[in-house]
């Protein structure tokens, strides 16, 4: 599936966010009102009560309570005597996620309804909608804005399609004309966000859920889902699924129902929650329910509603290593744990996969970045890597023998860009190497010196983002012992 190809939509049970899709495809304003009915503005207290009654949490991954965000902005506006800004985060920097793109392309008015409700309650000065530069949802969103009036000026801002661009602080920076990276220090957008004003920032699906709840009311909204997590959930199912799709289901739906609907084959593991998520086994998936609580019970996470299953004929550790390399390359480069710690973690994972280092090396590298970053990127990457080491422990044991699991890395994780068409790996002619150590100084993220002072590096292909450094290491080797050759 390419980055601009929106997957089909499916469902288990009563549709809400996806209501009318089968009949209308894309819901223009007339179709939207026919399917969902009218909606009126709500006073701040009423909107707060609604969000609290349905326990609405952000659908972008962190799951922060929407009512707490709304109250924080209201209080900040009063305390500072300032206006507010409403921001819709529809950037989906996570390459494996498609749910927000589906909403923008097929139900844009539902997202706009939710943003308008928030803007009215806050007496906001403007609404800003952030979308990715792949332009998947922008045309539909632009058309929707032409079709209707909004309570305040509403604009669309395009951000680079990078993993970290979807982080809330990065989006606010981008809207303010700064680099599209998270701020170097933690700051609350509810105090100072877009143009220095208190800013309510939440995910596109969150606003769409708010619009549904405003029409249904808290009791009817809670007719679906669980007591702890009322309502429905949007899921993106890709990877080894024979029928990849964006699926809507009630919270509490058995995960196995979703996997069967998308024709997911049995495999070594399923990534839940995306690249900052966790792996679970197929056996755990049989016991899991689609909810934050239900997935946590089997060691998984709901995150941004991303499900990436693996097939049995692919190397799970190799797939995971590719993702860690990608995440290391997505660093904002503004704090040590991200700029230096994540490449070190990627190298540690590569070494473990190659059977050149024990899993303790990965644990140590992950421990060096956890809780120390300027944003959540180091923590999420460490969580992903450690989960892979745990769930694929048997494969790791096979790799530790030096022979591997015997499976190819097929590249099914949805990473952006085409697979490396010309993978290269380093080799060493031991009859020439005198242990000068120059190569380790040139590319320390990939080559280290062992206890005897000789170079040690993974047998896996050199990551593309370290290829230039590897070439330099080859050139500086005084004995011409190091080579960069084609990886089979």
TrEMBL record:
It comes from the Bacteria. Keywords: 4Fe-4S, Flavoprotein, FMN, Iron, Iron-sulfur, Metal-binding, Ubiquinone. One of its GO terms (biological process) is cellular respiration. GO terms for molecular function: 4 iron, 4 sulfur cluster binding; metal ion binding; NADH dehydrogenase activity. The keyword Flavoprotein applies. The keyword Iron applies. Residues 317-362 form the NADH-ubiquinone oxidoreductase 51kDa subunit iron-sulphur binding domain. SMART domains: NADH_4Fe-4S (SM00928). Its cofactor is FMN; [4Fe-4S] cluster. InterPro entries: ComplexI_51kDa_subunit (IPR050837), Nuo51_FMN-bd (IPR011538), Nuo51_FMN-bd_sf (IPR037225), Nuop51_4Fe4S-bd (IPR019575), Nuop51_4Fe4S-bd_sf (IPR037207). SUPFAM superfamilies: 4Fe-4S ferredoxins (SSF54862), Nqo1 FMN-binding domain-like (SSF142019), Nqo1 middle domain-like (SSF142984), Nqo1C-terminal domain-like (SSF140490). PANTHER family: NADH DEHYDROGENASE [UBIQUINONE] FLAVOPROTEIN 1, MITOCHONDRIAL, NADH-UBIQUINONE OXIDOREDUCTASE FLAVOPROTEIN 1 NDUFV1. Belongs to the complex I 51 kDa subunit family. This is NADH:ubiquinone oxidoreductase, NADH-binding subunit (Chain F). It comes from Micromonospora narathiwatensis. The lineage of its organism: Bacteria, Bacillati, Actinomycetota, Actinomycetes, Micromonosporales.
């Amino acid at each position: 599936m390419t980055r601009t190809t929106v997957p089909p939509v499916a469902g288990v049970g009563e549709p809400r966010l996806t209501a009318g899709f089968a009949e209308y495809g894309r819901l223009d304003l007339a179709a939207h009102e026919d399917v969902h009915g009218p909606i009126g503005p709500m006073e701040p207290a009423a909107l707060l009560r609604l969000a609290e009654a349905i326990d609405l949490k952000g659908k972008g991954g962190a799951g922060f309570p929407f009512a707490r965000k709304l109250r924080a902005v209201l209080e900040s506006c009063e305390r500072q005597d300032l206006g507010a800004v409403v921001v819709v985060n529809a950037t989906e920097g996570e390459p494996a996620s498609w749910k927000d793109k589906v909403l923008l392309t097929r139900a844009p008015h539902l997202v706009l309804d939710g943003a308008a409700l928030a803007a009215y309650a806050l007496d906001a000065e403007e609404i800003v909608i952030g979308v990715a530069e792949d332009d998947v949802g922008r045309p539909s969103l632009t058309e929707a804005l032409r079709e209707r009036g909004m309570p305040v000026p509403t604009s669309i801002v395009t951000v680079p399609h990078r993993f970290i661009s979807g982080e809330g602080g990065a989006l606010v920076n981008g809207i303010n004309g700064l680099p599209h990276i998270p701020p170097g220090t933690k700051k609350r957008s509810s105090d100072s966000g877009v143009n220095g004003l208190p800013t309510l920032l939440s995910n596109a699906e969150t606003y769409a859920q708010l619009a549904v709840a405003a029409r249904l009311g808290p009791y009817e909204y809670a007719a679906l889902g669980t007591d702890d997590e009322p309502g429905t959930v949007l899921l993106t199912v890709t990877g080894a699924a024979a029928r990849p799709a964006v699926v809507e289901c009630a919270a509490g739906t058995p995960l196995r129902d979703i996997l069967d609907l998308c024709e997911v084959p049995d495999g070594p593991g399923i990534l839940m929650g995306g690249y900052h998520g966790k792996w679970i086994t197929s056996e755990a998936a049989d016991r899991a329910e689609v909810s934050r609580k239900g997935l946590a019970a089997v060691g998984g996470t709901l995150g941004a509603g991303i499900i990436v299953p693996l097939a049995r004929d692919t190397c799970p550790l190799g797939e995971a290593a590719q993702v860690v390399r990608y995440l290391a390359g997505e660093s904002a480069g503004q704090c040590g744990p991200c700029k230096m710690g994540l490449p070190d973690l990627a190298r540690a994972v590569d070494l473990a996969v190659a059977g050149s280092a024990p899993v303790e090396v990965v644990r140590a590298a992950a421990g060096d970045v956890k809780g120390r970053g300027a944003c959540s990127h180091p923590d999420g990457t460490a969580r992903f890597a450690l989960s892979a080491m745990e769930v694929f422990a048997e494969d790791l044991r096979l790799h530790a023998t030096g022979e591997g699991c015997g499976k190819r890395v097929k590249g099914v994780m949805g990473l952006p860009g085409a697979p490396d068409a010309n993978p290269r790996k380093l080799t060493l002619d031991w009859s020439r190497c005198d242990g000068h150590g120059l190569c380790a100084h040139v590319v320390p993220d990939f080559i280290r010196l062992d206890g005897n002072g000789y170079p040690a590096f993974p047998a896996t292909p050199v990551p593309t983002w370290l290829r230039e450094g590897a070439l330099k290491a080859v050139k500086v080797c005084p004995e011409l012992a190091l080579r960069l050759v084609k990886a089979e």
